[in-house]
Amino acid sequence: MTKARLLRLSVVLVSIFMILLIIVYWDNVGTAHFYLHTSFSRPRSPGAIAAGEDWEALPDVDEFLAKLLSSSLKQNSSTPRKTEQLLVQGSNKPVVSNLEENVRGYDWSTHKDRNSLDQEKLQVERQRTLREFCANSSFTFPTKERSFDDIPNYELNHLIVDDRHGVIYCYVPKVACTNWKRVMIVLSESLLDQGVPYRNPLDIPREHVHNTSTHLTFNKFWRRYGKFSRHLMKIKLKKYTKFLFVRDPFVRLISAFRSKFELENEDFYRRFAIPMLKLYSNHTNLPTSVSEAFGAGLKVSFSDFIQYLLDPRTEKMAPFNEHWRQVYRLCHPCQIDYDFIGKLETLDEDAAYLLQLLKVDRLLRFPPSYRNRTASSWEDNWFAKIPLAWRQQLYKLYEADFVLFGYPKPENLLKD
């Protein structure tokens, strides 16, 4: 009887050990190989982590995993790292039509003549503003009070992880996310070109950039690691450098409208334009293809789009599409302590400073600015024909993004 019990105990222990090994060495680029060397991600030496420093708030399972991962990190510390080389950026650019050029607003200049900002103070101010309003009980918005454990896995699909450099990026559509995704692909070496990882972000085709299989996101953890997924997420959130980029919420809406409804987009026409045209413009018997609709002069108006956002039926049918979903719903800034908050309005300076802090500025440069020409000064023109009551409702819908990220309330749009 005693031998049988010992045998069963041995099988259980071996099984647990094998599960932990699988977690550590996932996809041949496991957490055991990440580098805790970024200058502002609260790095700790392997010895300090193994000693339990900075882990006292974690549950026992988290602490055990952290120590195991740190032990593995020690064993791999002697592995020589590749010599960092400054990459020469190629001159190739995505091919765009004149219409797309006008609507999307590509700008390939490097803006070297821009005055540099005091980035360190800027980051302190942005993070202070975010923390203060997250802690302010009088300022409320949906999902603010929930904990990280309360966030469903499918809402974590915008958190992209690079284990090689210990970086987590929450991407926000219409905020230079295409080029930031390219940067994450280069850093993580998650995509190969003829067997070799991409080195120049602009070499990566756009269709690969937005392919969900290209990126390791938090949403994929639960499928791979089951009940251990949340523990691993917490460890990474504790130790990795986390960043996001935002922009003025109303300008982002204008940009999303121009990109998805002024250009011929078959998917968005069928999923969103047809219902909008039927509900808010009283059109019937609409063409089945976007090219036919555009040829007949049938396009969604900005007024249709705003009505769609304000319509209570919209959210009842499905959550907002990511291109106009609020940032607080995409990136959960009150549940995740971001180390860096960038803004599209200061993209060039913020990007250069972030890559420097991540110590990867000698590996790559942020691609020449993808600067949408949707300027803040355009808001008056775009909203001129939108009723005041709608504008006020729209502000309440996006108020949290304005407040959390320090954007001024657009008083000129909210008063007669």
Describe the model.
The protein is mainly α. Among the domains are: 113-250 and 326-413, no CATH class; 257-317, no CATH class. It has helices at 2-24, 46-50, 60-76, 98-104, 119-135, 177-188, 206-209, 218-225, 229-239, 249-261, 266-280, 290-295, 302-310, 312-317, 327-331, 347-357, 379-382, 388-404, 411-414, and strands spanning 159-162, 167-170, 192-193, 196-197, 241-246, 340-343. The strands form two sheets. It has a four-stranded mixed beta sheet, with helices on both faces. Strand 3 and strand 4 (196-197) form a beta hairpin. Mean pLDDT is 80; it is low at 24-58, 71-98 and 105-115.
Brief rundown of the structure:
This protein has 416 residues and is mainly α.
Q: Rg, please?
A: 24 Å
How much strand content do the residues show? 5-15%
Largest sheet features: 4 strands, mixed
**Widest sheet: strand order?**
1-2-5-6
Name the helicity range.
40-55%
Which secondary-structure class do the elements indicate? mainly alpha
Low-confidence stretches: 24-58, 71-98, 105-115
Termini Cα gap: 85 Å
Helix count, DSSP H or I runs of 4 or more residues: 19
The tally of beta strands, per DSSP, is: 6
Outline, from the CA principal axes? globular
Write the element-wise H/E pattern from the N-terminal end onward.
Answer: HHHHHEEHEEHHHEHHHHHHEHHHH
GO molecular function: sulfotransferase activity
Subcellular location: Golgi apparatus membrane
EC number: 2.8.2.-
GO cellular component, one term: Golgi membrane
